[in-house]
Amino acid sequence: MIRILHLITGLSTGGAEMMLYKLLSATDRIRFKPVVISLTDIGPVGEKIQAMGVPVHALGMSRGVPNPAGIFTLARWLWQAKPDLIQTWMYHADLVGGLAARFAGNIPVVWGIHHSNLDSEGNKRTTIWTVKTCARFSHWLPVKIVCCSEASRRVHTPLGYDPDRMVVIPNGFDLNLFKPDLEGGDLVRQELGIHKDTILVGMAGRFDPQKDHLNFIKAAVLLQKDIPDVEFLLCGDDITWENQKLSKWIDGTGLSKYFHLLGRRNDIPGIMTALNIGSSSSYGEGFSNVVGEAMACGTPCVVTDVGDSALIVGDTGIVVPPKDPDAMALAWKKLIKIGKDKRQKLGHDARLRIRENCSLPAVVKRYEELYKCVA
Fold first, then answer.
1. What pLDDT band is residue 69 in, cutting at 50, 70 and 90?
2. Which CATH architecture has domain 182-358?
3. Residue 227: Cβ within 10 Å count
């Protein structure tokens, strides 16, 4: 049995965190014994992982530049636990885990990169510093570097990351969980008072600069000018009317009554099925989980051309430039005008595309094969 320690920066609701959860949910527990350590706190995803019977520990470190004391604390923990392999998730965990593994006796480390936008607008200075430091150390700290998308590999190679250690493993989706849920979709519409024939455009994702909710809102205003009865749904961490910045943006449009802000939801298949059109308005992504989840639920999507979103969607949706609300509104309008039957055909093809390229069992198998080679 291979003892794997998964080290992650934090366990809030995000793409990397959810991919770790999905990986653990399908990992062969006969051949692999996983443990999870969060550099910060346990968070909601950590609680879900614990509920699966996987041990989760939190070091309580502050976010920002990694603390040397925290590195030595982790090294002592590793020395005692003696895992066969460490898989790190996100930049800070890559750096801290790589150094701690060296101090603990050269435990093999696999880094994980889940990001493809590193401009100063959407990233903290401490994050940029950590990325540049990781680039220098990438030639000798990790044995492999897993990128969640081809875009992530393209972005990080010019920064100095060792290309020979990089391998792309996309995010995976459980098609038994993420599937068309007509009953759940009806319940969502009933909850919100949305008529079954009303066009509903939506997006799931936490409130984060790179998700660019303002782009979505601006596009909604433009679409409303042509199709006044369309409604909009947003959900995710901090996507509530209590979020003053978000609510101010929406209130300023005069269209508040057409927006539904749901916060964090646990019924994502129902949410996605309730939508006629799924969306991603981001200007920075690695591999968009929410797009894959919407497609797996049979919902056609309009996405911005960032990360691997265009590759994920293919010809089952529409790809538009980032930060271009006119293009997004026009794409939504196009999918509305083609009618229900053609949208359903696109949604059917979208689910097949996810099945063929990103099914969870196939992705988990690639991780497990990598672990067997490295440990």
1. confident
2. 3-Layer(aba) Sandwich (3.40)
3. 14
